[in-house]
């Protein structure tokens, strides 16, 4: 395996993916500016067959399923062993998906307890992104600029999020996000 490059942020990563060929991308959720989960759908639009392995400090139970639904080929925490990383890279470059035993267990649990999922798992990927940004203190203007949508669109997402989650304010969303370790 050869490391062919590194990107400092999402914009640089997207530019490199447009202009260069890679066998796999290892993507961190916590990128400066836009998160890896926000960048992932754009990567899949530019290069639909390019496998993306998420390597993150965030525990699997918080983001793995959402990342896989957004097009990731696999998800590992930074605490995973180097052997597990190599195994995951080999699997995703062969066109397969990689999930750890704990993610497999979560998938089975979600099948059994579909109605008991946390409130944030009922949000669409975009709603989840907006909720995390609101909970993190970003203004609607900043969110709109980063997501390349209008402020009215962000306000519509906010209203939907509040309704779906049964919350009344941004403070409620922030409290929820902190309690569920989403920030």
Automatic annotation (TrEMBL):
Residues 116-181 form the HTH luxR-type domain. It comes from the Bacteria. One of its GO terms (molecular function) is DNA binding. The modification 4-aspartylphosphate is found at residue 28. InterPro entries: CheY-like_superfamily, NreC/VraR/RcsB-like_REC, Sig_transdc_resp-reg_C-effctor, Sig_transdc_resp-reg_receiver, Tscrpt_reg_LuxR_C, WalR-like. Signal peptide: none annotated. Pfam families: GerE, Response_reg. Residues 1-93 form the Response regulatory domain. Keywords: DNA-binding, Phosphoprotein, Transcription, Transcription regulation. PROSITE patterns: HTH_LUXR_2, RESPONSE_REGULATORY. The keyword Transcription applies. GO terms for biological process: phosphorelay signal transduction system; regulation of DNA-templated transcription. The keyword Transcription applies. CDD domains: LuxR_C_like (cd06170), REC_NarL-like (cd17535). This is DNA-binding response regulator.
């Amino acid at each position: 395996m050869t490391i062919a490059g590194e990107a400092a942020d999402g914009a640089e990563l997207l530019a490199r993916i447009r202009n260069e060929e890679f066998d796999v991308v290892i993507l961190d959720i916590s990128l400066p500016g836009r998160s890896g989960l926000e960048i992932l759908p754009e990567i899949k639009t530019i290069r639909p067959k390019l496998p993306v392995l998420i390597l993150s400090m965030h525990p699997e139970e918080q983001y793995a399923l959402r990342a896989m639904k957004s097009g990731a080929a696999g998800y590992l925490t930074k605490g995973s062993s180097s052997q597990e990383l190599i195994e995951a890279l080999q699997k995703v470059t062969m066109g397969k998906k990689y999930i750890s035993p704990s993610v497999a267990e979560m998938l089975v649990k979600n099948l059994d307890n579909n109605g008991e999922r946390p409130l944030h798992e009922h949000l669409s990927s975009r709603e989840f992104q907006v909720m995390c940004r609101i909970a993190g203190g970003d203004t609607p203007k900043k969110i709109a600029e980063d997501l390349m949508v209008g402020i009215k669109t962000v306000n519509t997402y906010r209203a939907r999020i509040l309704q779906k989650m049964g919350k009344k304010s941004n403070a409620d969303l922030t409290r929820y996000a902190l309690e569920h370790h989403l920030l």
